[in-house]
Amino acid sequence: MKTKQLLKYLRIDRWPTVWCPGCGNGIILKAFLEAVDQLKLKKDRIAVVSGIGCSSRATGYLDFNTMHTLHGRAIAFATGVKLARPEFKVIVMGGDGDLASIGGNHFIHACRRNIDLTVIVFNNMIYGMTGGQYSPTTPEEEYASTAPYGHIEKPFDIVKLALSAGATYVARATVYHYNLLVRYIKEAIEHKGVSVVDVISNCHTYFGRYNGMPEPYQMLEYFKTNSVTLQKAQTMSEEELEGKIVIGQFRKEEKPCYMDCYRELQKKAQGR
Amino acid sequence: MMNIDLKKSKAVTGAEAVANAMRQIEPHVVAAYPITPQTPIVEYFAKFVADGVVRTEMIPVESEHSAMSAVVGAAAAGARAMTATSANGLALMHEIVYIAASSRLPIVMPVVNRALSGPINIHCDHSDAMAERDSGWIQLFAETNQEAYDLTILAIRLAEHEDVRLPVMVNLDGFILSHGVEPVEFLPDEVVKEFVGKPKRVYPLLDTENPVTYGPLDLYDYYFEHKRQQVEAMEHAKKLFPKVAEEFEKISGRKYDFVEPYKLDDAEYVMVALGSTNSTIKYVVDWMREEGFKVGALKIWMFRPFPKEKIQYYLNGRKAVVVLDRSASFGAEAPLYEAIKSALYEATIRPRIGSYVYGLGGRDIVPEHIRKAFMDAIEGNLLVDEQRYLGLRE
């Protein structure tokens, strides 16, 4: 899709963005806008909530109802927005540091509660804004400003985390797989209940520079060669999957979401 | 103003200066989470750890809430523990900031002052520090990178003194100091190490022969008494600070006090402020003195405990006092102004007094603003109940 057609969803007066040239955040943002456009959603019926970090700056550029909140707290704020305006499509955008570290608790509880939110994780495996510190998704043995001799902690797998916490729609794509990304974000927005899209993205400025991929294309190339589809992954051994990015739709199931249960309870309590 | 020997000094940012103080102190534990503009302090320090320059256990935790919690745990176990933060990071620490003070844990924490959200702003003001002013921490404010370095070292001794046992925030202005380069005279490592000494372990958690518990339920039976002890500890901090400062002067030649008077001897009009703006104020004092105005400045080094007696000593009998605040207290007077005004209640000859709020969210303050505030004082145009603003569009 031509970018021009999507400009109506952006606050162009806020350009240029703070993102580095070649940053994956732009790809994710465009995929999101394309999904919104395909779904023909009304601009004033969408609320986008973000926390703190490079990716969270997206709310400043989007011409929807947007809220730029506190580090890690976007999901908590978004929960409030959804409860007050259940008819809104409420989307949370945030990085891995924001959503899986300082805000990790909100993330798992939103999944457990199955509240009708769409969480798009801009997962670049590092803290980009503050200078390349390792994040909860930095893979073992990779380098970061706080891991100059290699990272010794095990990363969170956002998909597994969301699945085990009870999310009802879970998918993963990388910024290399643009069309897939549009599809997953679209499905996630349409899905009733909590939906999580883990988007593996490039911070070549920090993650890339520390790990031998200082150019954006090198990281995209890396995502291309190291991604395997879920279908293929199911035929592979654990050793074969070492270091691979498994992309695909991991779960899509209809379950009563928080708002439905809440209304049900209301009726019951009021004897209706 | 402090005389710094340029030949002996290095040009460094405030962050690098503070990180080097931490290197020389070599705490047992540092736990931190990145936040602008504190980040470079921790980055420099992390490099010292990675390079094996210090033997500190460094924990890059998942939030500031965890950073302060880890440091509290380490300090309770008897370790010398430090962290650093800014703005929302400090706000997220808030509940443990109180735990640190009430558990009487001598943690020293550089706070790189930044405006609290919202809307989001990463630049300097003192709203973060002021939100913690009643938490029971000692609060020191640095004017220069040299002071940020010195006060971090000095703070260890004050915090860990047996009669004090209180945590200390060393405040330095975000970006202006943390990222601004100035000459800093570093003390030799062994001199700092000898000055800070080994921490005395007071009721450490890991003393298995004498087990203790920290923070158990303390209701209407003893909570009040414990709070009274914190009040007393602050009084001790006030008593001991000059002694610690004197010892620091012996090793550094640099003299610290509760406040720093600048050209006050015959000054009729005095400006009071915290932090780096004092350098600009001194510049304006010099400029206006050349024109014959009897102006001077009083810099506040220690904001908590509040050095009321010193304030009274220096401000009693002046014609007018202008107080500059880099934070607002919505619905009440600005914090420094309120404190100064309260101190002057007991003065025998009360000066006229005026409140000026400036620099919120990093808004620049220039000599003309300061001159304007001085001129208001000189022209008798101060109103005790009017809060004015410098550099604000209205």
Layout of strands and helices, then pairs:
The complex is a heterodimer of chains A (272) and B (394).
Chain A: H1 24-39, E1 46-50, H2 58-61, E2 65-68, H3 74-84, E3 89-95, H4 96-102, H5 104-113, E4 118-123, E5 126-127, E6 133-134, H6 158-165, E7 169-174, H7 178-190, E8 195-200, H8 204-210, H9 216-226, E9 227-229, H10 230-233, H11 238-241, E10 245-252, H12 258-269
Parallel strand pairs in A: 1-2, 1-3, 3-4, 4-8, 7-8, 9-10
Antiparallel strand pairs in A: 5-6, 7-10
Chain B: E1 10-13, H1 14-25, E2 29-32, H2 39-50, E3 57-60, H3 64-76, E4 81-82, H4 87-102, E5 108-113, H5 127-130, E6 138-141, H6 145-160, E7 168-173, E8 181-184, H7 189-196, H8 223-252, E9 259-262, E10 269-274, H9 277-290, E11 295-300, E12 302-304, H10 308-315, E13 320-325, H11 335-344, E14 352-358, H12 367-378, E15 387-390
Parallel strand pairs in B: 2-3, 2-4, 5-7, 6-7, 10-11, 10-13, 13-14, 14-15
Antiparallel strand pairs in B: 1-8, 6-12, 9-11
Helix pairs in contact in B: 1-2, 1-6, 3-4, 6-8, 9-12, 10-11
Describe this structure in words.
The complex is a heterodimer of chains A (272) and B (394). Chain A is of the alpha/beta class and 272 residues long. Chain A has 12 helices and 10 strands. Chain A has one domain (22-269): Rossmann fold (3-Layer(aba) Sandwich), CATH 3.40.50. Chain A starts with 23 loop residues before the first helix and ends with a helix. Helices cover 39% and strands 18% of the residues of chain B. Chain B has helices spanning 14-25, 39-50, 64-76, 87-102, 127-130, 145-160, 189-196, 223-252, 277-290, 308-315, 335-344, 367-378, and strands spanning 10-13, 29-32, 57-60, 81-82, 108-113, 138-141, 168-173, 181-184, 259-262, 269-274, 295-300, 302-304, 320-325, 352-358, 387-390. Chain B is globular, with a radius of gyration of 21 Å. Chain B is of the alpha/beta class. Chain B folds into 2 domains: 10-252, Thiamin diphosphate (ThDP)-binding fold, Pyr/PP domains (Rossmann fold), CATH 3.40.50.970; 259-390, Rossmann fold, CATH 3.40.50.920. Chain B has a 6-stranded mixed beta sheet, with helices on both faces. In chain B, strands 5-7-6-12 form a 4-stranded mixed beta sheet. In chain B, strands 3-2-4 form a 3-stranded parallel beta sheet, sandwiched between helices. Chain B has 12 helices and 15 strands. At the A-B interface, strand 6 of A face helix 2 of B.
